[in-house]
């Protein structure tokens, strides 16, 4: 296993290496990590496929195999599990829909049932969403539900006004959003709340200047971004912070050159893949978010990514969505 | 917890039989498996053993007799113990935290939660799950706890956020006097680490909810600069103050604001040049 430790800093994006890295992910069945991450296999497919599409290599994974696999994760109640036989959850349901939209294969599944499952996750009193039948509430799930139903053109299935109300309860004094009311502002949660509000035409509820400042203050001297004050930089925040800034029309508040330098330095220039920061082990999650970050920054050779849906822009346009 | 209770090693346990008294009336013919499980349970209770086999045992008993309230109580407490051990190994697992929440709500007893979250925060003072969890189970001495953590690490943004939460989510609305004290507290911490944004955000948040104005920070910002301490947050705060005054018609302050933005964009916060140029533009556009 190689790390991203290198004496020279890479100044190019190793697209071919990353494509190969993603392709070989499913072949590592001898690795313990392969089995430890079984519960999020479906997420892995979404992360890998989206990265491939942005790198102009969507066919590097066989479309039929991918669709068949996604279909096998759907339950009778319409929800999808993280892998075959795993319990249904909102998160995996969104990943499933995102994958099928990329593969232009929504007709392979029971869409009405998906709508039913997602709608059933909303608490009609508070507007909040639970992740599954066990009741955990988090603004991540608000985004997941709204994004999923938006892709399926079925936002009518939930109480949008109430959903917005709950999200706004999670707005904090620093302009950011947490996972539940009063919880600390966190870039991941901010992406979810801002993305959700964007989909339902409610961005005017956000103090864009104040939040934009909070977001651009995430950039550290080394060019990387952290997720909240005084924490370490991490490549995945190149997505959570950047997409939120992009949605708010303030992407240029980040120093582009320094961030690109940081992301490129986190690549494994031998075996492909991107890590959370230079010198660490790569994984497909950080590979995707490094790529989406670079795409948002206009890095050459990549397709443009949609900051709200975290899908290639052409895919969002293909299904007739304009945000 | 995949093993059935029989598969655990019980060789060290002497089961204790049910004592129905010397002349039991209407003795119940219990299912042998249930009797066996209860026998082991009584023995473990006596030793006050908390373990995986104890947990599995209570599960089996509940299966046989779901109306056995005491066993439920013990079972739920075993679960709390089990979760504690799991959280030590997986402190960032969403499901574990949620599961604990559900149990605590069932037990209607959060007496253990203070020390439980304190232990987790001892290992990782910024664990997002632990902090969020504390917002569900707010205690009267939350401010004291938060203060302890701020003393330990003045840069702990989670602690600062929790301080705000503890004050403003309190059923008792804070008095103006109290809020003034909080602003002073924030200022004292700013002086210790002027480049740390957390107390700045905190103080501004408190001011926004009080009758105070941002002006109360002007002296602090200017004195830091005069001492040669360059904090973009102090300079940024001055920009905010000047902008407010410019909007009220002060041309002098409008100029000062613009100059401060230039200072930040070109010298003291170059990485955020575009942001400070934006602030300069906003100031310049004030009629």
From TrEMBL, chain A:
Catalytically driven reaction(s): geranylgeranyl diphosphate + L-cysteinyl-[protein] = S-geranylgeranyl-L-cysteinyl-[protein] + diphosphate
Residue intervals passing through the bilayer: none
Domain Prenyltransferase alpha-alpha toroid: 15-311
InterPro entries with a match to the protein in the record: PGGT1B-like, Prenyltrans, Ptb1, Terpenoid_cyclase/PrenylTrfase
Documented EC number(s): 2.5.1.60
ATP-binding as UniProt keyword: no
Family membership: Belongs to the protein prenyltransferase subunit beta family.
Cofactor binding annotation: Binds 1 zinc ion per subunit.
Gene Ontology MF annotations: metal ion binding; Rab geranylgeranyltransferase activity
Free-text function comment from the UniProt entry: Catalyzes the transfer of a geranylgeranyl moiety from geranylgeranyl diphosphate to both cysteines of proteins with the C-terminal sequence -XXCC, -XCXC and -CCXX.
Name of this chain's protein: Geranylgeranyl transferase type-2 subunit beta
Record carries keyword Manganese: no
A Pfam family it matches: Prenyltrans
GO cellular component: Rab-protein geranylgeranyltransferase complex
Essential cofactor(s): Zn(2+)
Keyword terms: Metal-binding, Prenyltransferase, Repeat, Transferase, Zinc
TrEMBL record, chain B:
Cofactors: Mg(2+)
CC annotations in GO: CAAX-protein geranylgeranyltransferase complex; protein farnesyltransferase complex
Pfam family, any one: PPTA
EC number: 2.5.1.58, 2.5.1.59
Protein name: Protein farnesyltransferase/geranylgeranyltransferase type-1 subunit alpha
PANTHER family (alphabetical): PROTEIN FARNESYLTRANSFERASE ALPHA SUBUNIT/RAB GERANYLGERANYL TRANSFERASE ALPHA SUBUNIT (PTHR11129), PROTEIN FARNESYLTRANSFERASE_GERANYLGERANYLTRANSFERASE TYPE-1 SUBUNIT ALPHA (PTHR11129:SF1)
Molecular function, one GO term: CAAX-protein geranylgeranyltransferase activity
Entry annotated with the keyword Repeat: yes
Protein species of origin: Dentiscutata erythropus
Keyword vocabulary terms for this entry: Magnesium, Prenyltransferase, Repeat, Transferase
Lineage: superkingdom: Eukaryota
Protein family per UniProt: Belongs to the protein prenyltransferase subunit alpha family.
Record InterPro entries: Prenyl_trans_a
